[in-house]
Amino acid sequence: MSTTGAKAPGTLADDASFGAIAWTNPGNAASSDNVYATAAFTGAGTSHYLKATNFGFSIPSDARINGVTTTIERACAAGGVVTDNFVFLVVAGVVQQTGKNQYRPEAWSTVGDEVVTYASPSDQWAIALTPAIVNASGFGVAIAARKFNGGAHTASIDAITLTVYYQRPGDTDVTVVKLRASQPPHDELQTLRVQDLSYGRMLMRKNTASFRISRADPNLAKFRHLLTPDGPPPMFSIERPDGTHPWAGFLQDYVVRSSDPTAQFVLADHAWRLEESVTAKTGVLRGAFTDVVIRTLREIDARGEPALYLQYDHNEGGPRLDYAYQAAKGLDFLQQAAKFTGWEWGFAYNVSPAKVETTLMLRQSIGRDVRDSVVLDEGVHLKDIDYSLRYSEGIAAGLVVGGTGTFGDRSAVAASRNGRAREGVDTRTASNATQRGIGGTRVLIDRQVTEQQALINAAQRLHTSPEWVPEQVGFVIVEGEVDMARFTLGDTQTIRLDETDLSTPRVLYARTIGINYNPQTREHRVEAKVVT
User: Fold this and answer.
1) The dihedral sign for the CA sequence 37, 45, 96, 364
2) Does the CA dihedral 382-388-389-393 come out positive or negative?
3) 423 close to 413: Cβ distance less than 8 angstroms
4) What is the pLDDT of residues 17-55, one digit of tens each?
5) CB-CB neighbours of 516 under 10 Å
6) Is the alpha carbon torsion for 472, 512, 359, 336 positive or negative?
7) 343 vs 290, 321, 332, 334, 365, CA distance in Å?
8) Cα–chain center distance at 197
9) Burial of 352 (0-12, 13-18, 19+ CB in 10 A)
10) CA 99 to each of CA 127, 132, 498: distance values in angstroms, whole numbers, following the listed order
11) Is residue 289 within a helix (H) or strand (E), and if so which, with residue range?
């Protein structure tokens, strides 16, 4: 992976598209010289954007942008409490407020300048970056500050830099496996030579990885003493130099056969650790959903399990939840939380030489709608395609049809979000809806359930979950054909299938629910659900 190195902006300006407090002398943030761009707060409030552009990048046109980081040297007058409000990229001179906000929650230093790094080498800030965009003079970064308490205090920025990480054709992507300590921060112990490496990420399911190591490898002998049922399972991280597809997990299965010259390692993520080791306390937990999460994580901490971080961004405090918590294991808890709230969960990894952080993401929806920017075509991007139409998965809620007998003999029941029923749904329409859905509303069919309330409850549980039709697509993307840094779990993209056994070509909108990567074949196996 190549890098531009940290560059200073050629242009700095006060941008009044947000906030109330202007930045004075914005050009002073061009270099670290103790001469500052300042925002003078007279009380609580928000600042304008301090916008830095014209960094003079010259990235080759055939490169792939992996990520962008920025450093900001910042401070606040003693006695004040100032934090980041927004930290966005700037494209063509416009602050990208629909991109990823990289703000840091901690207060700015009041005892001198502090240099803070934002984002990572694999973070594109939720923007489809290209060399042309990055090289333009209008590309840069913007920061807006926020003051919470009263009184007059000044926020100061001494310097801003921007670093771009990119990959050129022919650059090697060497994926390595590292053995790490079982306990946080999971220090690196050694780098391993492995065979048949394959690892993946899934939404709402356990993530797994596997590889083999030659039994004659001296590296195996160095840590074989850790493979004991009496101790904690070792942690392994899987890393690429470009920072994409980081993975971390614990040893789940270790298999050695006398006839096999290799030892097989099967790894699993924190979902497995939760399932195996976390037992809910006796009693019923009620109230805010986030309170239930916090209690569960405290239980993990009390047991000395590996660190797990809950990601609250975009959660706005989490959904409300009021139900009897009967889950006996952590994974059961996550599954029940998803069932009762409709919120999805998954794991994200931040792997560095210093530590490994595993984040439990819990959101109303995970992923982005990239169907306009990521269009995948059979014969161009996709190979080894399998298409399936699974009627048993055509269940979603809002409309419920149930009871014994035929559909024409039964009344349909529409369930609203709060579970109240209303009559009057055309049963003929409902009976024709099992294949494609009714205007995006999915149908739950259970001929054996006669209790109307049970059907309504089923609809309520699934009401806010992602809507898809009972079609599924699996395919392989060869490394380099699509920028996989822009292709993440939960994303919805356009897929064109022209050579299937269907009577006509199909244009599908599919949501990624699983990605498995094999660095030896340099292929990504993608599992996707077709959405309405």
Assistant:
1) positive
2) negative
3) yes
4) 999 999 999 999 999 999 999 999 988 889 999 999 999
5) 18
6) negative
7) 12, 11, 14, 10, 7
8) 22
9) middle
10) 6, 18, 33
11) helix 289-302
CA distances from 219 to 189, 191, 192, 226, 459 (A): 11, 8, 7, 12, 53
Q: In Å, how far from its chain's centre is CA 51?
A: 27
Interatomic CA distance for residues 529 and 513, integer angstroms: 7
For tokens 């083999």, name the residue: 212
pTM tops 0.70: no
Is the separation of the CB atoms in 433 and 482 below 8 Å? no
Residue 297 sits at φ, ψ, to 5 deg, of -70, -35
pLDDT tens profile 93-147: 999 988 888 888 888 988 888 898 888 777 788 788 889 999 999 999 999 999 8
Structural tokens at position 154: 């000044």
Distance from C-alpha of 434 to C-alpha of 312, rounded to nearest angstrom: 37
Query: Contact, 452 vs 406, CB < 8 A?
Result: no
Per the CB < 8 A criterion, the answer to whether 159 and 50 are in contact is no
Do the beta carbons of residue 343 and residue 393 sit within 8 Å?
A: no
**What is the number of helices (H) and of strands (E) in the chain?**
7, 33
> Rounded to whole angstroms, how far apart are CA atoms 419 and 401?
15
218: tokens are 């001296």
Which amino acid does the sequence have at 325?
Answer: Y
Helix (H) or strand (E) holding 339: helix 330-341
Tokens 């969960």 appear where? 345
| Tokens encoding 313 | 């961004």
Distance in angstroms (rounded) separating the CA atoms of residues 400 and 414: 6
Cα–Cα distance, 513 to 365 (Å, whole number)? 12
Q: Is the dihedral of CA 128, 368, 245, 248 positive or negative?
A: positive
Please name the residue ranges forming H helices in 50-160: 131-135
pLDDT digits (tens, 9 = 90+) for 483-517: 776 778 888 999 988 765 555 678 888 999 999 98
The Cα–Cα gap between 52 and 161 comes to: 9
Question: Hey, what are 446's tokens?
Answer: 């259970």
Expressed in angstroms, the distance from the first to the final Cα of the chain is 38
Amino acid identity at 128: A
Nearest to 485 by CA among 238, 126, 204, 201: 126
Residue 201 three-state SS: strand
C-alpha span between 102 and 118 (Å, rounded): 6
* Residue 45 CB-density burial (10 A; 0-12 exposed, 13-18 middle, 19+ buried): middle
To the nearest whole percent, how much of the chain has pLDDT over 90? 27
| Angle 263-268-274 from CA coordinates, rounded to 5° | 140
